[in-house]
Amino acid sequence: MIRKIAATAALAALAASPMTVSAALPIEPIGPTVTVFTATPTLVGAGVSVSALGLASLTSDASGNLVGLFPITGGLLDPDLSNATVEHVGSGLRLSRGGVDVDLQNFLIDTTLAVDTIFGSVTSGATFIPLAPLFSLSGLNLVVTDPAGDALAAFLGIPDLGGAQVGFALTSPVAAVPEPETYAMLLAGLGLITLAARRRTQKG
């Protein structure tokens, strides 16, 4: 119980930190963010089941990895394409183990300045955190933040995944879940995340 309280407090503290958003243009809902969870075997091995919430959808690729589609509902993009926030209101994931559910919803991909983080609301029982840092972005790779790893370990009783790479995400105007052989094409398509990261690297 103490560990759950501490993990919740750590997530809440980081969620309260202000995010910096520069003057930017609205993003049209052009398509979903496609997320491939290469850590699916790790989650399954720990007894965690994953299901889609709201507008999200889940399927599996040829390797057995879960592939999620999270519709883009809005966001902001700097005129020079250097930074972006991408909103996914109304969709999310439910992680379940031993009768305990942890809902991660309303994802916000933030590549402004040095943030490169995916935020989202966290709900488990009576605990609700509106905007917690869930994953950090290393290029397109998703890495579980330390606070999120602590919280998941506390709520679900699984090994701490803080710092672990769990998959990759890309934003592209696709209409359906891509087959594995088309991932390279999507990566080459310069989605918002890719474009923001590349422009920022060139400036540095």
Features:
41% strand; alpha+beta; 204 residues; single chain; 24% helix; globular
Fold and architecture overview:
- Strand 10 (127-138) and strand 11 (141-144) form a beta hairpin.
- Residues 4-22 and 173-194 have low confidence and may be disordered.
- The protein starts with a helix and ends with a helix.
- The radius of gyration is 16 Å and the shape is globular.
- It is an alpha+beta fold and 204 residues long.
- 24% of the residues lie in helices and 41% in strands.
Q: Write down the oligomeric state.
A: single chain
Number of separate strands:
12
Q: Which term fits the overall shape?
A: globular
The secondary-structure element order is HEEHEEEEEEEEEHEHH
Q: Distance between termini?
A: 44 Å
Rg over C-alpha atoms, rounded to the nearest angstrom: 16 Å
Task: List low-pLDDT spans.
Answer: 4-22, 173-194
Summing up helix and strand content along with how strands pair, one would put the structural category as alpha+beta
| Overall pLDDT | 78
Largest sheet: 12 strands, antiparallel
Quick synopsis:
This protein is an alpha+beta fold and 204 residues long.
Record the SSE blueprint:
Elements: H1 2-15, E1 25-26, E2 32-37, H2 40-45, E3 49-54, E4 57-60, E5 66-71, E6 74-77, E7 84-97, E8 100-110, E9 117-124, E10 127-138, E11 141-144, H3 146-156, E12 165-171, H4 183-188, H5 192-203
Antiparallel strand pairs: 1-6, 2-5, 2-12, 3-7, 4-5, 6-7, 7-8, 8-9, 9-10, 10-11, 11-12
Helix pairs in contact: 1-3
